Amino acid sequence: MSGGRCASVEDAVAEQQEQAAEDVMMTRIGQAVMLHHGGDREEARDRFLALWAIIGEDGDPLHRCTLAHYMADTQDDPSDELAWDLRALSAAGELTDGRVAQHHQSLAVRGFYPSLHLNLAADYMKLDRPDDARSHLRQAYGVLDALGDDGYGDGVRSALARLAHQLDEGTGPGPSGEGPVGPPRRES
After folding, report:
1. How many whole angstroms separate alpha carbon 71 and alpha carbon 29?
2. Which pLDDT value is given to residue 2?
3. How far, in whole angstroms, is CA 146 from its chain's centroid?
């Protein structure tokens, strides 16, 4: 076998191993999400923190975006929730459609933004920062066309409409975090 052929086989094997490792991380994030959805918020938060320690601030943007997006929901303090949602938005800015397609062919980065901005708008509303909330609502509305006509897309659109109405009426979640159910989260 020539040296060039051997190197390309080794590269292909290394790439497959890397993709398998990435799939394992998404699986582990998904398991923590299921714990949270099952009502074990504290255990989910602990697992997310352990996974974040592995991924790190400079890790795979898909992993960071996904984990931070769901970690925000496990927070007790609205300021902590905001910090995690900002991490998710920042990581989304580093994502490519190619990387997202490796995880699931039907996903595109642009489709992440309506929910990410909706979450930030809700966070800012909880923190009594209506101008920031409106800014993120506008950004979410600006990319709504990226969502499909399915249950997830309908849920995001409905949550946006509810939050916009609450902002217009001056009602909704305050610093205590009480208020409407937040936006839907796409299953990983």
Report:
1. 10
2. 45
3. 15
**Angle of CA points 18, 23, 29, to nearest 5°:** 130
CA pair distance 160, 166, nearest whole angstrom:
10
Model pTM score: 0.78
pLDDT at 125: 95
Chain position carrying tokens 């991380």 = 25
Residue ranges of the alpha helices (H) in 38-150? 41-55, 61-71, 78-92, 97-103, 113-126, 130-142
Listed as ranges, residues in the chain with pLDDT below 70 are: 1-22, 105-106, 171-188
> How confident is the model at residue 179, as a pLDDT?
42
Q: Under DSSP, is residue 9 helix (H, G, I), strand (E, B) or coil?
A: helix
Q: Both ends of the chain: CA-CA distance in Å?
A: 41
Distance CA 9, CA 165 (A): 57
Only one residue has tokens 């309506």, namely: 114
Would you call 170 exposed, middle or buried from its count of C-beta atoms within 10 A (0-12, 13-18, 19+)?
exposed
pLDDT at 188: 42
CB 177 within 8 A of CB 125: no
Report the distance separating Cα 143 and Cα 129, nearest Å: 22
3-class secondary-structure state, position 185: coil
